[in-house]
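notes to self, project folder thing:

trying the whole complex as one job this time. last attempt i did each chain seperately and stitching them together was a nightmare. two parts in total, labels are on each line so i dont mix them up again. if this works i'll redo the older ones the same way
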Amino acid sequence: MSKKDIIDLNKAQQIPKSGSGTDPDFDTGDGSMKAYERFRVVNKSERRVDATKLALGRGTFTDDESPPGTLTVKMLWSPHAHARITRIDTSEAESMPGVACVLHYGNVKAIPHTTAGQGFPEPSAYDMLCFDQKVRFVGDRVCAVAAETELQAARALEKIKVEYEVLEPVFDAEQALAPGAPILHEAPDPQGIADTSKNLAAHLAADIGDVEQGFAESDVVHEGEYEVCYQQQSPIEPHVALTYLDENDRLNVRVATQVPFHSRRILAQVLEIPVSRIRVIKPRIGGGFGSKQEILVEDVPALVTLRTGRPARWCYTRTEELVSARTRHPAIVRMRTGAKKDGTLVAMEMIAIGNSGAYGAHALTVFSCTGGKALPLYRCEHYKFDARVAYTNLPIGGAFRGYGGPQGFFPLEVHMDELAEKLAMDPMALRRKNMLRPRDENPLAVALGEGKEGYPQIIRSCGLEQCVEAGMKAIGWERRGSFDNSGPKKRGIGGVCLMHGSGIPGIDMAAALIKLNDDGSFNLLVGATDIGTGSDTILSQIAAEALSVSLDDIVIYSSDTDMTPFDTGAYASSTTYISGTSVKKAADSVVEQLIAAAAKIWEIPSDGLRAENKAVHAPDGRSLSYGDICRSTFYSHNQHQIMDHASHVSYECPPPFSAHFCEVEVDVQTGGVKIIKYVAAVDCGVAINPTACEGQTEGGASIAMGWALAEGFRFDERGKLINDDFSSYKIFSALDMPDFETIIVPTYEPSGPFGAKSVSEIPTDGPAPVIANAIYDATGLRFREIPITPEKVWRAWREQQ
Amino acid sequence: MIRFEAMVNGEQLIAEIEPHEALTEVLRRCGLYGTKRGCESGDCGTCAVLVDGTLVASCTLLAVQANGHEITTIEGLARGREPSAVQQAYIDTGAVQCGFCTPGMVMATHALLSRNPDPTEADARQALAGHLCRCTGYIKPIDAVMAAAALVRAEKEAAGE
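result (full assembly):
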């Protein structure tokens, strides 16, 4: 089927109700949510299925297992931002005690690939090799050593002699795109780069209507330039992989990953061995936030294992994590918006220059989401979005929770506040006048798909108005402007609106398998990857609800490429919505099998039989427990295994909506910004587990608060990261986190499992703009760039006076 | 090699260690994997253990410095297979997300409650200040500390202390 056929077949109006989550009793958006009354397991704050072992310290993470004879890998990293290796001498290192294997461009085959860990074919350029003769940032791979101990490996690294031809680096994205800039990636053109001769990793453009005409028709046109900084995901568990050959000489890879199946596919590509020779096992994962979507630490130990036959382990240090893993792409975003006097938006333009660093992982798709998630929040006739993403000699951009959304919402939502001021309107009133409503079409969904044309989207569930209302009430919006700010500590309040997505339409696919056990319990095998998101719990709740059993009756096992069905992985806010629907479908099918089996035991027609409370009930009052049915089908009559699997892919991508508000106190004597209170009101459809949903919201927001106020990279003049550990790269701590209120606005998404949409990424979109808006309200200082550090506030205040 | 000998979770632990090895490494090598490694510079707190009842970052403490001392790790808190009151509070409040920083936070909560059974929320935040977490935003862990304090007090009352 051609792409055009797919799109034609899936015109929004004709989209079949995906999954089996449709509830006929629910009329989207009108508040009659009878489905909520019937839930027994979902929409309940069940304890997490994995919490006990983790609280006891028994959760087994990747590095909590060490086969005898495991070699430790250490990497020599590039000290130069841009250089060509002219000579590498590893002879002395190789003769050092304990050294088992040394790898570099001279002895590892050059196979262009991307580490981006996406579906196939990847929308990221094949611009990386395991080891390259050229290094493109301070922290690029040069040479790996595997030794008996970490100390031996580290000592051997010191003995590697490398000569470099140092090349001129370029650190600024706009300079990199300008004529005459040093070129990072030379011919022959690696596949998928927009234009190597311009350092252009990716270019996106979308035009709806004609913005110039729109600006001409507007009463007010507002312009602004905004800049967002680097941020590093900083999962507390660093990247780590352990590789070994099993008794069948298959390569086993135990890795902290969000994407076990992509990991297997990409490893097969770079190792040139069949997928069938690789098993990727996802143990417990200590957070990922996008960084573990990247295939970063699997290839080197795998090469060591294949060459030596021995287990090998590679674990990043914190500094390696900060420098050489992945980051949130920094960007400069220019916005222009035209509006009528009454606040009606006419035209919106967003022009982004992204910095992808040395390689182009996720360059195209992150910036597709910058326009694609942010701009459609407000309705107008004319849109223009353009993003050029540059290669520079700095750390590499990648997937980071929010995935381009935060880079779009900071400019958009600061810009909306500025426009409101120009129009002399309340900023929330301007938003309410223009924001998406149920049954609106997402105007940019087709133009900005995942590296290709997307699918039309009509908003079915939307609680944004309720989010705004509840959030304004909780923060006390009416107090805005009434603070006594005559002293040095000044208070202000800000608000923003947000939307995100649920999975990548037409691309993300998940599968689940459910089988019945003797006691009426079920094994649930899913490809979905719980990296701390709670998806093992959420998916178990969905299964338990659909099967009409308790959560204890579900035994979940997730993402092991030998044992579970496929899933694209834990990214794109897809697990609850996509994987959850696959679980619901499989469970519904198992219920049908249970009913059919009971009907056969009773020798009656299956009509009128129903499954409830772990038993099948007949209209005449008889019932058979699931355990009875299982024992019968295992051992005596109609013998078979009751089980089924289901896959799910969605052409719909229902956005969760949210409104964030905060109150800040700015001390103009020190420049310090203290968040006094933060309110996040979120519509994620039915919250499958409200406590987990709060946890996602609080955690996602805290990440972005750090981005807004404290994080960001600082480099020396040679491009070396200065704040490269946790004492200099400050993520939020318990002392920084404000009083926080999460308000879950109940809606019901007809296309989601039991009415659910996503919730994980949307909270990262709000903090940067809402804090900036609140600081403006408090001080009159308008920050169009983050991080808003005390120094910047202090200087800006001095200048203003 | 140096002989390391200490009471760990109430049992004698003997190991041959290198002088440069951090306590985290030795504990993990001896199978006590509950103590995690997150930064190896004492910043993230996931490696926290109690040494003679005092909370320390085991990644910046040389194992030789702990020689002969009494050490409690996350594995030593449970009552048999059952969670301690503090661990139960973390489970009940939804404070465990990925769980990688949880051992350190739980150790810190134990340390706090042993010296202050009735902490304020500010005390709870202070106790968790040295424990970085990227998942939770700390709100539920703070709830967990307060819930744990209430649980421990209730247990003590029930025991007539």
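what i see at first glance: Chain A has 20 helices and 28 strands.
need to look closer tmrw
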